[in-house]
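Archive entry: two folds, one per protein. Generate the first.
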Amino acid sequence: MEWIKVKIYPERENLEKVQVFLTDIGINGCTVEDSTDFSEFLESKAFNWDYIDESLMDLLNVKSSVTAYLHDNKQGREQLDKILKIYNNVEIEKVSDEDWENNWKKYFKPIEIGQRLVIKPSWEEYDNTENKKVVTLDPGSSFGTGTHETTKLCLYEAEKLIEGDENVLDAGCGSGILGISALALGAKKGVFFDIEQSSVDTVMKNAEVNGLEALSQAFLGNLIYDKQLYELLKQKGPYDVIFVNIVPDVINAMLPYLYNLASNNAHVICSGIIEEREREVIKNMESCGLKDISSQRMNGWVVITGRK
C-alpha cells in the first residue's frame, strides 16, 4: 500500500490547532516537532552540560511541524485537499509501507484465546488438533492482530458471551478481528464500520478468507457525525453484542448511539481504556442506561462490559 506523507509547517503557537484539525478530518495519528523543545531541554537546571554532540545542536534549528500519513486512496486524497485549503507551507511525499508490513510479520504468530478460539496470521500454519475455531487474519495496515491487550481482552469477552445466533456490531472495526471472531464462534451476522476505507476493505477480505463473507457487511463512516450511517446501522440491527475498541473519548461520544442500536439484554464491550480512565467510562456507560457493568484488566488496560 502507498501512503501520502504530509508535513505541515505552522507557526509554533498553532501546533495544537493543526493536530485538532487533523483529528476533525479523520486523521488520528501524527508526529509533532516543536522548535522550542530542545532549547528548553538545554536550559534545564537539572543538568550541567560540558559537551553536546554537534548533531544534537542542529535540533535548535528544527522548524515546528506536524507530520501525518494518509492512505493513497480516494479518502486520503480528499483529506489532503482539505489540508491544502487551510495550510500553504506543506511538504508532500509518496511513501511505501511494503518493507514495514513484511518486517512486522515475523512477530505475529498464532494466538490461542481461551478454550475455543485461535487467531492465526494468513502466512502461518496452525495444527488444530483440538478442533478450535481458527480465524485467519491479515490486518494489512489496519489495527487489530490479537496481540495487543485491548484486543485480547475483547476476544476473551467474545468467547464468554457468544453462544450462537447473535447479531454483532464491530464499531471502529480496524482489521475486523472482533466481529469476525464472533462469527467464527457462532454469531449469525456481523456488521462493521470504520472511518478508514482501508479498514473496510481489509474486513471484507478477512471475512472472505474465513468463509464468512456472506455473513458480513462493512461500512465507511463516523457514527458520531454521520446520521446516514446511524440510520443504516439501525436498519441492520438491533445488535446483541457490540464491540468498541477505540479510545475513551471516542467511546464516550459513541455510547448513546450504541445503546440505541443495542437489542434488549445486549452486551456492549468497551476496550482501548487505560486503568486511569476506567471510572470515567463506567460512569458514562451507566448514564446511558447500561447495567451489570464489569471490568477485566491486563497490563494496565481495561475492558468494560455492560448489559442493556
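Generate the second and append.
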Amino acid sequence: MFIPKKRIAIPIHHRGRNIVMQQISEILVPIIRAEAVCDPRQLSLSLQLAKTCNAHLTFMVFEENIPQLVGPIPFDTCLLKKSRAQECQVVLDACLAQAEEAGLHATADLVWGNPVDCLIREIQHRKVDLVVKSAEYHHFLGQRRLSGNDLNVLRLSVAPVLLLAEEQPDHPVTLKTLLVAVDTDPDNEALNIHLLELGRQLAELQQAQLHAVHTWRLIGEDYMTRARHHAPPNLHTKLENVLKEDHMKRFQHLLSGAGLKHGENVTAHLIRGRASEEICRLDEELGIDLMIMGTHARRGLEKFMIGNTAENVATSVKSSLLIARPDH
C-alpha cells in the first residue's frame, strides 16, 4: 500500500487476547419532521446494521410544538396538530413496513418539542447503543449539510452517533472503508481503545477495510524550526526520533489493546503534522466512508464543545461520522 510522505505503516504485534465487544442491541433512528420523510440512506443503513447486529430499531419523528396563536382570525391548533400527527404517522408506518419486510423487530413513536432536546432525552431514557442520523436537510440549498443542530447532537449525546454525510449522488451509502482517529494521551486510553473496537466491530460486520491514524508533532516545533541554527548539531533530529519512537510505541499499545494487527485487520498510519489537517487529508486520499472519532469528557459549559480537532474534522470531511464520548 502506498504510504504518503511523512506517514509510517506500523507493524503491530497482537497480544493474542480476546476482546469482548459491546453488543449493539438498540438502534435509534431520529427523523426531523421538517424533512417530511426518512432519508432513504439513513433507513437503508439502519436496517442493514440492525439485521447484522440482530438489534431492535426505534424510529422516532421529532416535531416542533405548535404555538397557540392569538388574533382576530380563529386558529384551531388542535386540528393542525392532529393533521401533522397523521402525516408523521404515515412516515413512521413506512419505516415500520420496511423493517417488517426485512424481518426486524421495530417500534415507532412521535415526540413533540424541541428536536435536539427531545432527542438527547430519548437517547438517555431508552439506553440507546447507537444513533443513526442524517445531516439536516437545508431547503434553501436543496441538500443535506452538517448543521448547528447536528453538532449539538454530537456534543450532547450519551450514545455514539453515526451521522450520515451530505448527499453525494454518485456515492451511495456504504461502509467499506473506515478510519479511526486516536490520540496517545494516557488519560484517553480507554476511549481510544473503545473507538478502535467500534471500528473493528463495524469493519467485521460490514466486511470493510479498516484504517487507524495517529498524528504527532514536536512541542514548540515552529519555534525550534526557526531557532535550529542556534541549537546544538543534530539536536532537532534526535528529538524527532525520540518523540516518533514514543508515539509509535503508544500507538502500538492502543492497537494491540483493541485486538488489531497491522496488515491483517487494520492499516495503521503514524503521521507527523497538525491533527485536523492530516486527518482530513488522509480521509480524502483513502476515500473514507466513515470517520470514527472521540470527544473529550466535559462538564458545565465545556460540554457544549466537541474538541478542537474533532470539530474541525467534523466540519471539513465529506465522509460520514461516528462520534463517541468517554462514557459510552
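Annotation attached to the second fold: Residues 77-101 form the longest helix (25 residues). The CA atoms of residues 89 and 110 lie 8 Å apart.
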